[in-house]
Structure formats: structure tokens, C-alpha cells
Amino acid sequence: MVTRMVTRVVTVIGVDGRPLASWAAARLAEATLVAGAARHLDALPIPRQAERVVLGNVTAGVRALAGHDGPAVVLASGDPGFFGLVRLLREHGLDVEVAPAVSSVAAAFGLAGLNWDDAVVVSAHGRDPRRAVNACRALAKVAVLTAPGAGPAEIGAALRGWPRRLLVAERLGAADQRVTPCTPEEAAGREWAGPSVVLCLADGPSPRGWAAPPNPAPERWGLPEERFEHRDGMITKAEVRALALAHLGPRVGDLVWDLGCGSGSVAVEAARFGAAVVAVDRDPAQCDRTRRNAAAYGVEVRVVHGAAPGCLAGLPAPDAVFVGGGGRGVVSHVAALGARAVVVALAAVDRLPAVRDALATASYEVGGVSLAASRFGALPDGATRLVAANPVFLVWGHR
């Protein structure tokens, strides 16, 4: 005789104030355990025979579901498969079927009357909110799922200094749901009702893509110098820039500093990967060039005019730093901030030991290379010669 294993399936029902699908309502009617937030348990017709589990403590709720011998239902806001409970339930070994409702992000954009096929969605719920904020600093259209302590006020406060417009969607799914347009400063100065989603918008258009979420990674990087406005060859050469980007590893959710930015070529290329970027230079003309280069590529770069390290006070902490100028004092200062990567470009070999020691003292794993590239050049008869570029010393530290 063969005994078959019977797998119990937990039904996860999304709640958005609309009537449930007929099959989801049938699952709820036959359930002997129903778990969910108190507001969802009060709003829906829970069967008399069903045990109620309030998901204030999600771990305890998952244990109750795993140990229940009978039909069980979980009620969750919006689409439970979108930054919701489905992942957690499956991680605990539960098989699920899902009846999704309208996600909070879709509800927020719908309430605002905006399309969101070109938006990037990030979550500050149960995660480090810095990455969500950095996405808002870098990208043109971002939706942020909020949480207590990482809500509209905190997000607004972190976005001071960036040209952004916020739409705060409050009490989603309730009869009095609303969207409030505001500046980051205005969002930081008031209280907001949950559940909420923050829509963060740049003034310029966001890219029209074919996939959602849009992938900000560029088709090509280490661009030729002639692709940037620069003065008298004062630009990080393409070969150096490509290797520097490989060690900086810019990505969505990161904040990259480009110190001594010059034309801003490193800053612009990092921003093209979706990172938030701050570019610093003490020359106002170079700051203007960086702004124009960023505008030419349609990326957001916050430009700070001043001499490092003094002008760095008050800036949000970086994840990666490129130092194109400033010497050991600047390297020591940024190394003490604890960024995961610091990359330094040097034109003189005698400066190398001090920079290497500054990174090692700050507990970085240090490496480096001398780059002496020879590019193809044309001879009058059509033959190819090698044109040597000035050598550059690239030093990096990783944590």
C-alpha cells in the first residue's frame, strides 16, 4: 500500500477594500484559521469556526500556520506577492496560492493619475532606508514603500538638497485615502498617516523603457574623452575610468562621491549605472562643466563647489568614493567614513605610498596598478602606430 503525502496550501488573499474574487471568498468561508492584521480581520467576514491570529508578530503567525491541520487563510494588504508575505511564507516552507489585490504602488500611482511603467520601486520596510533614499536621489521616478521610522518625513529629510517633488499617498485602501504633493522639506516637517507610499519625481522626464522596472545600467562605459566637455585634457582617461568604475561598483541604491571631479566624467558614468552621485571641485568652471556633462547624458549629479575635505561636512555618507585630487588628507578623511570602496587616481608615483598607507591604516584591503596605455594611431600611409598616454597610478581599497 502506497501512502501519498498531502500538501496543505495556505491561501493568501490580498485586501484593498474591493470585494474578494469568488474563489478567494470561498477559501475564506471554509477556513479554520485566518491570520492577518487586526484591521483586515475586522473588515472581512471571518467564519465563526475559524481561529483568528493577529499578525503583530509575523514569526509567531507563521508558526501557527505551519502547525495548523486544516484550511488556512492569510489576509494581507494589496498584492502579497509584491514586497509582501508570500516570500516569507515560502521561506518557511509553506506552499501558497495567492489572490492578489491592487498593490499599494499601483494604488498610489493611480490616485496620482500617473503611469508607472517607467518607475523603479524600492522598499524601506524592514531594510536600511539609505538604499531607498539613494535611488530617489539618482532616478527620475521612484516609488518607496514606507515603514515606521522610514516614512515620508524621514525620506523627505534625507532628500534635502536634491531637486525632487514628492507625492505622498496616505491611508491607501481606506475611504479617506489621499495624495499630497510636497517638497522634501515640507514632507520632513509634518506627520503622515499610514499605510503610505512616497512617489519621488524629478522635474525631467523619466526614460521610456520596454521592461519594468527599467534597467539603468548603460550599454557602454569607459566612454572616450571626446564624449565629454573638458578643458586642456583635464579628464580621467577612458582606460583609467573603466578600471575605476570596476572597483567603485556603482549601482542603484549606492551613493558615490567624485572628489576633484574636473569635467565630472567619473561622476556621470557612475550615475549612468543608477547610483546617486555627489561631485566636488574647488574650481567653479569645472563644476559648471560637470553639470553640463550630466545634463547631456540625462543623469542626476549633485555638484558641490568647494575644497575637500572641508566642504564634505553635512553630505550624506558615501558607499564608494573616487578621489581624483586632494592628496593624502582627503584620502584619510574619506577612508575614515567607512565606504566599501575608495579609488584614488595619482599622476605621480611618489604620492603612492602615503595614499596606500592611509587606506591600510583605515583597515582597507589595498591594491593598485600602473596604467600605461598605448592607443592606436594612424600613419600617413594608413599603417597603425602606438600613441603612448601618460601613465596613471590607480590605488584602491575595499572592505
Task: Walk me through what this model shows.
Residues 1-7 have low confidence and may be disordered. It contains 13 helices and 19 strands. It has helices at residues 22-30, 38-43, 58-66, 85-91, 104-112, 129-138, 152-158, 184-188, 238-248, 265-272, 284-297, 327-335, 352-361, and strands at 9-15, 33-36, 51-54, 72-77, 95-99, 120-123, 141-145, 165-170, 178-182, 197-201, 255-259, 276-281, 302-305, 320-323, 341-346, 365-371, 374-378, 384-388, 392-398. Helix 9 (238-248) crosses helix 10 (265-272), helix 10 runs parallel beside helix 11 (284-297) and helix 12 packs parallel to helix 13 (352-361). With 399 residues, the chain is an alpha/beta fold. The longest helix has 14 residues, at 284-297. The strands form 4 sheets. Strands 13-12-11-14-15-19-16 form a 7-stranded mixed beta sheet, with helices on both faces. Strands 3-2-4-1-5 form a 5-stranded parallel beta sheet, sandwiched between helices. A hairpin with a 5-residue loop joins strand 17 (374-378) and strand 18 (384-388). 29% of the residues lie in helices and 25% in strands.
